[in-house]
């Protein structure tokens, strides 16, 4: 029987990825490597987009926004694993926990929206190339990016308000490696029905609205590509879209597995694995996917590294 009145927690204790003592050093080294690769890869792309004039196009403008997002989300979620190992403290204050949860929720929605904007950019470039520079002017791109950032952070406010008003917890120990909505809901003895309804509604909204606006343009893109007569032209068109489509499929698959699974029989360990992939692996893989499959990024990197070479 859960006690009716429990003291409100001033802090939470984060379990981490694993509590096995023999795994702490390997986990720390792995997370540190992933974090450094994420920062290095995304910072490289961001600097190239800012410094190389060949990459100052709408597609790379949104890619720069995605790099900022990936660095921010990795820092918000992975820093506790690193700092808890270094200083040996797994406690996080109530305010810091709520802030971490809010920013994480915002970053998830923001990534979906930015990928939607990137999908619209690819649709315009391939299906309406003659008007591309008019439809994707700098001010239009700036407005789209601003809407994405503002929408994502406003959308997460109701979640944060509901959780902040939780007044009853059965424990202050969070079985996760950061403050996240689902484990917080698990240890709360307050009524979580409103939160569950809101989470399902927002998840359904992104599943239908963002998913549709992201994938439907690709139906038109594929149709336009198939109409290109030359095989070289079709290959080039597919090549420009494959990186973005790979990232979109990867993100949606993991988010669906993490948030839209049936709650009955839900496993926090299972949820933790997908959260680790979303917050660590995906931000690290994004710059690799875009750079390894993108001739423009590789050419820009070569130009910046070859200081003594010929300048375009």
Would you spell out the secondary-structure blueprint of this structure?
Blueprint: E1 11-14, H1 24-51, H2 58-87, E2 91-93, H3 94-127, H4 132-135, H5 138-155, H6 157-164, E3 173-174, H7 181-187, H8 193-226, H9 231-259, H10 268-292, H11 295-305
Parallel strand pairs: 1-3
Antiparallel strand pairs: 1-2
Radius of gyration: 22 Å
**Beginning-to-end CA distance, first to last residue:** 73 Å
List low-pLDDT spans: 1-5
Category by helix and strand content: mainly alpha
Instruction: Give me the strand/helix succession.
Output: EHHEHHHHEHHHHH
- The total strand number stands at 3
Number of contiguous helices:
11
| Order of strands in the sheet with most strands | 2-1-3
* Helix content estimate: over 70%
Beta content: under 5%
**Shape category:** globular
Output mean pLDDT: 82
Largest sheet: 3 strands, mixed
Task: Describe this structure as you would to a colleague.
With 312 residues, the protein is mainly alpha-helical. It is built from eleven helices and three strands, in the order E-H-H-E-H-H-H-H-E-H-H-H-H-H. The chain has a three-stranded mixed sheet with strand order 2-1-3. Helix 6 packs antiparallel against helix 8 and helix 9 runs antiparallel to helix 10. The protein is globular and about 70 Å long. The N terminus is likely disordered.
Keywords for this structure?
312 residues, mainly alpha, 11 helices
Give a quick precis of the structure.
It is built from 11 helices and 3 strands. The protein is mostly helical and 312 residues long.
